[in-house]
């Protein structure tokens, strides 16, 4: 039985394909269209890519599951979501007379919940979904047990923590949808001040300033519009009536972003307090010792790190596709769970998108004039590690791509963490704001040498921040944020053996069991997907080397000869 899951949100369109409940692939539309977050795009290309990965056509698909219940949205009457409308929109090449698979519409937060529950590898789990908005809700508490998901409590869109944080990002001049990650980084430069947006209720939930002014009888769309007006107005009231520590008092229009550091720190602190309240509330209602998180807010690694340190739960699991890109998987899992036996895939690695092969790598390099050498895998890891130790920046693209927003050793840019100038150079190459931090990939066996606070399970997908040991902060300054923290990826040998080997060779050369790892993309671009994407980005960048499948690639023959000769000399 094949089930195709689709996300048709206004952003992060994606497709996921299951065979008898097991995940075959998950493809994010942005990787194919090359438009970040695939805003207002259909997942048509991603769906076709999934079918191609499995070597099947749409005729083999039993069900198409969508991560939204359209009947509960203002789009309920749209012809686009009839079987014929879906065919024309997503599969325009399919003949009009062809039979479409069954269509299933899964509530958005149920799809989010399924994406983390069925993939966490445990049966009895407390589930929290926290994002901008589902059909009518912004936060959901659920219980996953015996293969079923029970929704226990929902909070309305007027109490949206996701909208609160996104609108704060916009207020600081960082963008509503693309700025939350930047706001989280900016928060490290500031200190929390007077509360400016959230208020604790007696039941422990923190509500936004919009809650009292937004009608609970309004439609989800109307509530969203009202919140987008009311929360920024609450920010303006707070920063002008509190005290001067919320300088510069007004929405950002060209000022230095660092002027908003205290504002960012305050918003981050309030979000973390809200997360504590939700986690404690969930612990009281559900006896499980494991908490699974999904929704865009779950991507806030500083918040996740604080939850881990609180030890409210023994284990916290965050799916690598906690954003709306993950509801394609969740919707497919909800549909698959109706059929027994059902054995969903435990996601213990992130490599579920399309692969770069030796053939595609050779074809991509051939017309460019770049210089390359095919190397055996052991030599490839050693040469790359030596080049990084010598101060070179290495772009690394091998195998199947990661799902989610984090580069995790399949589509990464790697560099030496010992030199603070690495941080400046990488941010320049990628066109990022200079104050934004970089992250480390760390050998699992050595994680405690680097970090003094726990990172636990979410570190497999670079989804939890932790405090670097004070003695190590001067040793690895390129990945040490201004507050002494970092967002590590824990690399184990079984999950990605060649990437582990590269870092191990770097450790043998330098004594440091970690490298800088940032995503393989330039500003406002998605992470590279194909061999052609990788080559094009490398040519445009100021990076020194590209590892593409089994090829070591340089922009000059002398550079390539130098790197290989240096390793041979060792």
From TrEMBL:
Q: Where is the Carbamoyltransferase C-terminal domain?
A: 385-555
Coiled coil region boundaries: none
**Any idea where the Carbamoyltransferase domain is?**
3-66, 99-333
The cross-references to Pfam families, in alphabetical order and at most eight, read: Carbam_trans_C, Carbam_trans_N
Q: Which InterPro entries match?
A: Carbam_trans_C (IPR031730), Carbtransf_dom (IPR003696), NodU/CmcH_Carbamoyltrnsfr (IPR051338)
* Residues annotated as signal peptide: none
Q: What is this protein called?
A: Carbamoyltransferase
Recorded source organism is Nocardia iowensis
């Amino acid at each position: 039985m094949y089930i195709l899951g689709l996300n048709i949100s206004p952003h992060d369109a994606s497709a996921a394909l299951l065979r008898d409940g097991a995940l075959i692939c998950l493809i994010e539309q942005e990787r194919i269209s090359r438009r970040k977050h695939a805003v207002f795009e259909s997942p048509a290309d991603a769906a076709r890519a999934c079918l191609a990965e499995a070597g099947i056509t749409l005729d083999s698909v039993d069900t198409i599951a969508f991560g939204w219940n359209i009947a509960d949205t203002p789009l309920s009457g749209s012809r686009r979501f009839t079987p014929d409308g879906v065919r024309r929109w997503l599969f325009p090449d399919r003949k009009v007379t062809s039979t479409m698979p069954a269509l299933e519409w899964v509530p958005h937060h149920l799809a989010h919940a399924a994406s983390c529950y069925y993939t966490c590898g445990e049966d009895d789990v407390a589930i929290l979904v926290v994002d901008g908005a589902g059909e009518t809700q912004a936060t959901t508490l659920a219980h996953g047990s015996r293969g079923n998901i029970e929704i226990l409590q929902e909070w309305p869109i007027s109490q949206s923590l996701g909208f609160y944080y996104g609108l704060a990002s916009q207020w600081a001049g960082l963008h509503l949808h693309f700025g939350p990650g930047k706001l989280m980084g900016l928060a490290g430069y500031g200190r929390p001040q007077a509360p400016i947006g959230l208020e604790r209720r007696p039941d422990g939930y923190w509500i936004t300033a919009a809650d009292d002014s937004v009608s609970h009888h309004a439609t989800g769309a109307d509530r969203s519009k009202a919140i987008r007006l009311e929360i920024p107005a609450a920010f303006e009231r707070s920063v002008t009536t509190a005290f001067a520590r919320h300088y510069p008092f007004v929405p950002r229009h060209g000022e230095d972003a660092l002027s908003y550091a205290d504002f960012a720190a305050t918003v981050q602190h309030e979000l973390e307090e809200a997360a504590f309240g939700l986690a404690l509330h969930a612990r009281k209602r559900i006896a499980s010792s494991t908490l699974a998180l999904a929704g865009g807010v779950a991507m806030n690694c500083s918040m996740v790190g604080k939850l881990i340190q609180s030890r409210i739960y023994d284990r916290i699991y965050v799916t690598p596709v906690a954003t709306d890109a993950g509801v394609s998987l969740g919707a497919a899992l909800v549909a698959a769970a109706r059929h027994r036996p059902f054995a969903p895939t435990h996601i213990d690695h992130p490599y579920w998108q399309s692969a770069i092969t030796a053939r595609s790598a050779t074809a991509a390099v051939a017309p460019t004039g770049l210089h390359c050498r095919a190397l055996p895998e052991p030599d490839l890891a050693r040469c790359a590690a030596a080049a990084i130790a010598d101060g070179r920046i290495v772009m690394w693209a091998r195998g199947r791509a990661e799902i989610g927003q984090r580069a995790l050793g399949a589509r990464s840019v790697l560099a030496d963490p010992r030199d603070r100038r690495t941080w400046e150079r990488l941010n320049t190459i990628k066109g990022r704001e200079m104050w934004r931090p970089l992250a480390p990939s760390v050998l699992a066996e050595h994680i405690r040498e680097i970090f003094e606070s726990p990172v636990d399970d979410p570190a497999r997908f670079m989804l939890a921040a932790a405090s670097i040991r004070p003695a190590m902060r001067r040793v690895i300054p390129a990945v040490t944020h201004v507050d002494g923290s970092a967002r590590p990826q824990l690399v184990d040998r079984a999950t990605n053996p060649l990437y582990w080997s590269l870092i191990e060779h770097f450790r043998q050369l330098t004594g440091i069991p970690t490298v800088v790892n940032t995503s393989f993309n330039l500003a406002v671009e998605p992470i590279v997907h194909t061999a052609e994407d990788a080559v094009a980005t490398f040519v445009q960048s100021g990076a020194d080397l590209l590892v593409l499948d089994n090829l070591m690639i340089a922009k000059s023959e002398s550079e390539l000869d130098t790197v290989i000769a240096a390793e041979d000399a060792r």
